[in-house]
Amino acid sequence: MIYSLKGKITVKEINFVVIECAGVGYGCKTSYNTVSQLGEIGSEAGLYTYLSIREDNAELFGFATSQELNCFRLLISVSGVGGKAAVSILSDFTPESFAFLVASGDSKAFTKTKGIGAKTAQRIVLELKDKIGSLGGTAVNPSVSVPVSDMNTSAVSEALEALMVLGYSQGEIAPLLRQCDPNLTTQELIREVLRLIASGKI
């Protein structure tokens, strides 16, 4: 399994980049959001990767952040959503926006992505909300977490679900949410928790 790549950018296109590592160029299909975060050709870059192997094809996908990679994995787990469709969605939505849409049940927003119809969009929200719901029911260490039932606002609950979409556990996120102003909107809470994470709070 190729988990990540770090090397020199030799090709940079709208949804495709090549990273040269020790003389080997790895071609990665990727989202516009990732490409926009990369430097110019010749500069150093790192990508989190996913290797898709099928009977007749092998494709390497690369993403600038582990959150975007996690969103990609969630998307391709949905029946009828392949790598190409997942990349298209992640080109239109940041990981934070994607997580918010899933948590809030807004399937209509995904139909704005080319090739994503209403049925597929509904399936994305339905299947991924079910997965996050099952995650929310897992046991956590009470010394580092706060039960969801103690969080009284819908915004906090939606933010918790959205951040779990990004791959964080309830035990990691709940204490950080408790540090935030409960009057913030869902998107503001998500941004604030991600800021706390980036500052090394977990």
Description:
The chain is α+β, with helices and mostly antiparallel strands. It folds into three domains: 4-63, Nucleic acid-binding proteins (OB fold (Dihydrolipoamide Acetyltransferase, E2P)); 69-135, Orthogonal Bundle (DNA polymerase, domain 1); 148-197, Helicase, Ruva Protein, domain 3. Helix content is 45%, strand content 19%. The protein contains eight helices and five strands, in the order βββαββααααααα. It has helices spanning 32-37, 66-76, 83-92, 95-104, 118-136, 154-165, 170-178, 186-198; strands at 4-12, 16-21, 24-29, 44-54, 57-63. Strands 3-2-1-4-5 form a five-stranded antiparallel beta sheet, with helices on one face. Strand 4 and strand 5 (57-63) form a beta hairpin. Helix 2 (66-76) packs across helix 3. The protein starts with a strand and ends with a helix. Mean pLDDT is 86; it is low at 135-152.
Task: Put the structure in a nutshell.
The protein is an alpha+beta fold and 202 residues long. The protein contains eight helices and five strands, in the order E-E-E-H-E-E-H-H-H-H-H-H-H.
Order of helices and strands: EEEHEEHHHHHHH
Number of strands: 5
Please write the CATH class name of the largest domain.
Mainly Alpha
Tally of structural domains: 3
Please give the order of strands in the largest beta sheet: 3-2-1-4-5
Computed structural class: alpha+beta
What is the topological layout?
Blueprint: E1 4-12, E2 16-21, E3 24-29, H1 32-37, E4 44-54, E5 57-63, H2 66-76, H3 83-92, H4 95-104, H5 118-136, H6 154-165, H7 170-178, H8 186-198
Antiparallel strand pairs: 1-2, 1-4, 2-3, 4-5
Helix pairs in contact: 2-3, 4-6, 5-6, 6-7, 6-8
